[in-house]
Amino acid sequence: MATVPVNEQSFALDIVKTDDDGRLNRSGSLISASAHIITAVIGSGVLSLAWAMAQLGWIAGPVSLLIFSVITWYTSCLLADCYRFPGPLEGTRTYTYMGAVKSQLGGMKYTLCGISQYTNLVATSIGYTITASISMAAIQRSNCFHKEGHDAECHASTNMFMIIFGIVQIIMSQLPDFHDLSGLSTLAAIMSFAYTLIGIGLSIAEIAGGKDVKTSLTGTVVGVDVTGTEKTWNCFQAIGNIAFAYTYSSILVEIQDTLKSSPPENKVMKKASLVGVATTTSLYMMCGTLGYAAFGNKAPGNFLTGFGFYEPYWLIDFANVCIAIHLVGAYQVYTQPIFKLVEDSFSKKMPESGFITKEHPVHIPLYGVLQVNSFRLLWRTAYVIVTSVLAMIFPFFNSVLGLIGAVSFWPLTLYFPVQMYISQAKISRFTFTWTWLTILTVSCLIVSLISAAACVQGLITELHAFEPFKFVS
Fold first, then answer.
1. How far apart are CA 57 and CA 20, in angstroms?
2. Cβ(272)–Cβ(30) below 8 Å
3. Biggest CA-to-CA distance, the chain
4. In terms of CB atoms within 10 Å, which end of the chain has fewer, N or C?
5. Which positions, given as ranges, span the membrane (predicted)?
6. How does pLDDT run across 326-340, given as a tens digit for each residue?
7. Which of 149, 192, 124 has the alpha carbon at shortest distance from 332?
8. Spatial distance between the Cα atoms of 61 and 166, rounded to a whole number of angstroms
C-alpha cells in the first residue's frame, strides 16, 4: 500500500481545514459579526425615528428607544447561548434560528418559529425595496426642487426605481451564501454610518438656523396637530417603527454561524451584539431627538426623503445614494436565510439532480470565480421579482415598517429566545427568573398587538386613496 510523506499530508491538511462539524473553517470575527449586525439594524428604521419622536414626545420617545435597545441586547445574549445544543460551548451547531428552536424546543414551537421568522424576512425585504426606491426617487425630486424652487410640484414614480433595485438584487443574489457577504456588509455598514451622520448634521444645521418649531413633552398636540384618535393610533404606530429599527434577531444565529470556533462563538456574538446595539442606539438617539428638535411636531415620516431638508441638495442626494447602497447589502443579509432554507430543502429531496446541485464556475473580472447554480439562479430571481411586485402594490413607508416591527419583534426578539433560555438553563416555573421573564414576555406581547393594530389601521387609511402600481413619491 502506498504511503503519503508527512510533508504532503501536512500540505493536504492546509488545503482543506474543517471545523468540528466537518464544514470548511469559518473565518468570521468580532469585526465582521458587528458589521453584519450594524448592516442589519441600521436601515429603514432610522429614517422614521424623528417622526416617531414627534408622536411620542421628549419623554416617551427616548425612553422607548432605550427600552427596546436593552430588551434586544439582553435577548440577543440569550439567543447566542442557544447556537449550540445542548450546551453553549460544547454542543452541536444548529446553523439557523429555526434549527436552534427545533433543537431547544421542537414540536409546534418549531413550526410557529418558522412561520414567524420567514414571514419577517420576506416582509423586511419588501420594506427595504420600498425604502430604497423612495430614496432613489428622492434624488430626482431633490434636483427638481433645486432647479425649480421649493414650492414646485416635484414628484417621481417609485416603480422604475423598484425595478432598478430588483435588477441589482437579482445580480447580488447569486452570491452563494452568508460567507460571501462580509465585504458587502462592511460597505453597507459604512454607508449606514454615512447617511445617519449626514441626517444628524443636517438636523443640527436646521436647529442652528433658529427656525421656530413646536415640540412638547408628549409630542403632537391633540386638537392642533392631530385628533385624539389619530394621536392614539400614531403613538402605537411609532412604537412599531422603533421595534422595526431593532429587528435583527431573526438572523442572529446565521451571523453567529460565520464565526471562528475559537474564541467560543457565543462569547464573541455577545460582544458583537453589545457593539452593534450600543452603536445603533447612540445613532438612533441622535437621529430621533435632533430630528424632532429640527422639525418639531411636523417631522416627516422619512426625514431624508420627506423634504424637511432641501439644501445643500448635493448632500441630500449623496445621503440617499448611501441609503440605496446600504439597503442592497441589508436586503442580502435578510434574504440569504430564505435562499438557504429552500435550496437545502431541494438538495435533500433531489440530491441526484444536476439542475439543483451542480455548480458552474464563471470568471468575473475584479471578482474571480463565481459558482453559478441553475436552480439558484432561477429561484432567487423569482423571489426578487415577487418581492419587488409586492413592494409596488404596498409602497407605504411608515405603516409597512411599523407593521413588520410590531409583528416580528415579540416572537423573534423576545418569545423564542426567552423560551430557549428557560429550556436550556432548566429554569423551574414560578421561580423569580421565570416570573419576571414571563411578565416581560406578556407585557411586550400586549404592546406588539396594539402596535400592529395601529399599523393595520394606517394601511387601511392609505389604501383608500391608492391605486396599485401608480404610487408617486
1. 51
2. yes
3. 92
4. N
5. 33-53, 59-80, 156-175, 181-205, 272-293, 313-334, 377-397, 403-422, 434-460
6. 888 888 888 888 888
7. 124
8. 34
> CA 305, CA 313: separation in Å to the nearest integer?
12
Phi, psi of 96 (to 5 degrees): -130, 165
Express each pLDDT in 253-291 by its tens digit: 888 988 888 788 989 999 999 998 998 899 899 999 999
Closest CA to 448 of 423, 424, 413: 413
Any idea how long the chain is?
Answer: 473
What are the pLDDT digits (tens) for 193-232? 888 888 889 899 889 887 888 999 999 999 988 999 889 9
List Cα–Cα distances, 25 to 13, 179, 452, in angstroms.
Answer: 12, 11, 42
User: Are the C-beta atoms of 57 and 217 separated by less than 8 Å?
Assistant: yes
Spatial separation of the C-alpha atoms in residues 47 and 283, rounded to whole Å: 11
Residues facing residue 353 across a β-bridge: none
CA-CA distances (angstroms) from residue 142 to 151, 226, 266? Answer: 12, 28, 45
* Cell (9 digits) for 160: 422604475
Which alpha helices (DSSP H) does 265-373 contain, by range? 265-295, 313-349, 354-357
Q: Please return the burial class of 194, using the count of CB atoms within 10 Å of its CB with bins 0-12, 13-18 and 19+.
A: middle
Residue 181: alpha-carbon gap to chain centroid? 15
Which residue in 464, 404, 409, 394 sits closest to 441, CA to CA?
409
Q: What is the distance between the alpha carbons of residues 247 and 44, in angstroms, rounded to a whole number?
A: 11
Distances (CA, A) of 62 to 56, 65, 212: 9, 5, 22
Question: What pairs with residue 85 in β-bridges?
Answer: 92
Q: Is omega for the bond preceding 312 within 30 degrees of 0, making it cis?
A: yes
**What are the Cα distances from residue 218, in Å, to 57, 58, 60, 231?**
4, 6, 7, 10
Residue with cell 442592497: 328
Kindly state the helix (H) or strand (E) to which residue 310 belongs, with its residue range: none
CA–CA dist 406, 124 (Å, integer)? 12
Q: Is 461 exposed, middle or buried (0-12, 13-18, 19+ CB in 10 A)?
A: middle
Measure the N-to-C terminal CA separation of the chain; round to a whole number of Å.
74
pTM comes to 0.79
According to DSSP, the β-strands at 84-85 and 368-373 are unpaired
Element (H, E) at 10: helix 6-15
- Rounded (5°) CA angle 3-7-10: 100
d(CA 18, CA 186): 25
